[in-house]
Amino acid sequence: MNSIKSDYLVIGSGIAGLSFALKVAEFGEVNLITKTRLEDTNSALAQGGVAAVTTDEDDIELHAQDTFTAGAGLCHTDAVEVMVREAPRRIKELIDYGVHFDMKSDGHFDLAREGGHGMFRILHVADETGKSIQDVLIRKVLKHPNIHIYENHMAVELITDHHVLNNLQSAFNICFGAYVLDEKSSDVKIFRADYTVLATGGASRVYQHTTNPQVATGDGIAMAYRAGVRIANMEFIQFHPTALYEPGSEPFLISEACRGSGGILLNEAGERFMERYDKRLELAPRDIVARAIDAECKLRGDACAYLDMSHLHANKVLAHFPNIASHCQEHLKIDITRERIPVVPAAHFVCGGVMTNLNGQTSMHNLFAVGETAHTGVHGANRLASNSLLEGIVFAHRAAKRVIEKSHTTYNNVLIPDWDETGVTDPHEWGLIRNNRAELQAIMWDYVGIVRSKVQLNRAIRRMTTLYEEIEDYYKRTPVTKDLLELRNLSAVAYLIVRSALRRNESRGLHYMTDYPGQDDKFLKDTII
Ligand SMILES: Cc1cc2nc3c(=O)[nH]c(=O)nc-3n(C[C@H](O)[C@H](O)[C@H](O)COP(=O)(O)OP(=O)(O)OC[C@H]3O[C@@H](n4cnc5c(N)ncnc54)[C@H](O)[C@@H]3O)c2cc1C
Prior knowledge:
Elements: E1 4-11, H1 15-24, E2 30-33, E3 50-51, H2 60-71, H3 77-97, E4 122-123, H4 129-143, E5 147-150, E6 153-160, E7 175-182, E8 187-198, H5 219-226, E9 231-232, E10 237-244, H6 256-260, E11 264-266, H7 286-300, E12 305-308, H8 314-320, H9 322-332, E13 341-350, E14 353-355, E15 367-369, E16 374-375, H10 388-405, H11 430-447, H12 454-477, H13 482-503
Parallel strand pairs: 1-2, 1-8, 2-5, 8-15, 14-16
Antiparallel strand pairs: 3-4, 6-7, 7-8, 9-14, 10-13, 11-12, 12-13
Helix pairs in contact: 1-4, 1-10, 2-3, 3-10, 5-13, 11-12, 11-13, 12-13
This protein binds flavin-adenine dinucleotide.
């Protein structure tokens, strides 16, 4: 089979992948593959906004400090400093590209404040910030002659020196591209490139309740792990405190900015309960609010909590949250200016991921990772709200700069074998994929959720081992499909989360263990697998 060759292979079409592609396209050919449609991403769902210092009253040191406080001792100082310092330049670039952040009548940005931020510093486009940025980036990418888009193309495995037919005698692992499933033809193609960039987003679909779209199955992390690349801090999963409680429907987020604007949390009895959990009330960091809702619901036997904005100015609520207002009206017949919104915590963001340095370089030669898939060290044990779109654009920029400047060897003579499907049959056990996926997600929710214990984690790992063996066996006997590949990736990600959680005998940031309720300085380090 002929391989499809480019200078750069970008896997993923969220804010990180698109930003990287646009920058390197000035210097070479880019193949950008994405699992479904270009616009199906976590990025498109980001409502709250992007954090950056844009006023004289604020200071990048304060932004850094808020990030460190949320990160509970595990943020990498250098990565945070790079991110907050470069933030204003990347925002300016987005504006130059054509993003229209909301402005006040006095000509200044209409900045929002979110949990954990000491200042109003969140730039937003109403409550559709991610989509607005992504739309602008997509328009530019589609126009660029050097960027070739492949929709419905799913990366299956990274191609490394373990695959190639000639003996490279290399002292380090090298990435040559990826095997990619073309969903329409069911062929697995070879995409080779001098540089491969994982921009595959998050993995929160590993949980039963999540705010993430269907594409967020941790494929980049799983592929990197299987290729022997270092993965860090997978125990730190952020649960968003307020997903809309609407059993059986696709997830929908009730933005943190609703609380930032003065929204309050009530229990079923109408009591404002946050004062019993944290003196910062609804603006406490996400992990504290999520645990408080979880505890309050368990204590009272309530199915959900409620977010109330009925005391706020109705026109302001509708102007800032038009998307949330129309979704609630359409789906639950709720008028958010008068009625309370039912909410539950849900898996939202993976702080860990594929370990990179400050330029997006992973532990594998010619393999980079950017966006939520990467672990740059900026989030530590807990992500500060609205820092992840920022992380995506800052580190995509740095990775692009790095590959443009770097002199590199092109491995054109390397012999990459075709994808081998000899011996596989089609046993038509599609029910097995659906059932295994549901079982895996339930195990993760019940035993590896917001509050954890050793007993629960060990129980999870025992059940997962059986599932893992079944999935691997099925994978070896069956032609690959998107559903099967996602299930396999989810099981690898689940395993990484539990293994990492079992190593951290303390409670820090998002990782809360009932048997070790306090922080322990012995664990003031990353969990690396
Ligand atoms: C509901 C919601 C609200 C949020 N709100 C905010 C906010 O206000 N501010 C903020 O900073 N952050 C927010 N976040 C987090 C933020 O949106 C994400 O962390 C960020 O957008 C991730 O961008 P990304 O480019 O890394 O990944 P994504 O935007 O998720 O893109 C990943 C891409 O990779 C593709 N892909 C995945 N696997 C494969 C594969 N195997 N082969 C090919 N393609 C693949 C996907 O199809 C997709 O195109 C929110 C997240 C959610 C879910």
